[in-house]
Amino acid sequence: MTTALITGASSGIGAVYARRLAARGHDLVLVARATDRLDTLANELRDAHGVSIEVLTADLTDGQQLEPVLQRLRSETPIDILVNNAGAGLLGDFANADPAEMHKLLQLNVLAPTLLASAAIGGMVERGSGSIINIASVLALLPEYSHGIYAATKSYVLTLSQSLAAEVTKGVYIQAVLPAATRTEIYERAGGDISKIPDVMEVDDLVDAALNGFDRKELVTIPPVPDVVAWEAFEQARGTLAQGFSNSKPAARYRP
Ligand SMILES: NC(=O)c1ccc[n+]([C@@H]2O[C@H](COP(=O)([O-])OP(=O)(O)OC[C@H]3O[C@@H](n4cnc5c(N)ncnc54)[C@H](OP(=O)(O)O)[C@@H]3O)[C@@H](O)[C@H]2O)c1
Fold first, then answer.
1. Which residues of 159-169 are buried (b: 16+ CB within 10 A; e: fewer)?
2. Which contacts of 153-156 are long-range, i.e. CB under 8 A and separated by 24 or more positions?
3. Based on C-alpha coordinates, what's the Rg of the chain?
């Protein structure tokens, strides 16, 4: 029996991961702030699938509340799958952003998933098995499409996933999932309006596709992209660009 720890399991993408992973027979550790929602989901999934479920209430922007979650990841009872999903948006442009709000977003979208992955990975490497699923966003590849720092936080999550995947081998699997607009509470929570966004994916479809990519052990899964060739071409272009990085002299166009 394997155990998955899911952050942000009280709604949206995280709640669907909880449902799908419980249906696959995994025990779960559900993390978020809304204990009542987590308890309701836990009871439903225990009854439906007979799995064992722990609920950990934590505001991941609070170091003291984050600590027990980190301890659970480091504990003797292993976590086999970490789903780094909790996250939020922040409307508004950079020039007018409230520094305190930006700080909170960085703690939730950047610092927490980093520390959680760090707490999980030691045991995974030791056991030679384990998976970390990081929920990024297509905005990581299209930052011009949104104002403020949200896209940059998601770009960090993608980059972290790519560097972890390059560094950690030996049975540990890393996946970055890049959803596009998906019908969840994230827009309303940030003060936005989802009805103004065209082409919204249903959250069940998003998670089912992401788990399909997980089963195929993809490093990067972008559910709405119709043809994987587009991603492969993007990666190939990155490789071509990188060939220039090892030149010890500036390129001719930059010489005086
Ligand atoms: N929906 C989209 O269009 C979309 C697109 C690309 C990427 N994503 C990413 O998908 C992930 C999940 O978001 P979602 O769309 O499912 O939104 P959501 O329905 O608002 O869910 C966000 C989850 O994160 C938890 N959370 C928020 N702040 C937290 C905090 N301070 N401490 C602990 N947990 C916290 C929330 O639970 P509590 O309120 O109970 O704490 C909730 O369970 C996020 O990382 C988001 O950036 C979403």
1. ebbeebbeebe
2. 153/87, 153/105, 153/106, 153/109, 153/110, 154/109, 154/178, 156/109, 156/110
3. 19
Specify the residue with its C-alpha closest to ligand 1, atom 31. 59
What is the reported pLDDT for 170? Answer: 82
Q: 150 catalytic, yes or no?
A: yes
Beta carbon of 133 within 6 Å of any ligand 1 atom: no
Domain ranges of the chain: 3-228
CB 182 within 8 A of CB 203: yes
**Above 90 in pLDDT, residue 1?**
no
Q: SS3 for 167?
A: helix
Average pLDDT for residues 111-134, to the nearest whole number? 97
What pLDDT does residue 38 have? 98
- Segment (H or E) for 31: strand 27-32
Residue 197's pLDDT is 92
Answer yes or no: is the C-beta of 61 below 6 A from any ligand 1 atom.
yes
CA distances from 250 to 141, 237, 241, 255 (A): 27, 20, 14, 7
Dump the DSSP string for 70-101. Answer: HHHHHSSS--SEEEE-------S-GGG--HHH
Is the CB of 86 inside a 6 Å radius of any atom of ligand 1? yes
Quickly name the fold that domain 3-228 has. Answer: Rossmann fold (3.40.50)
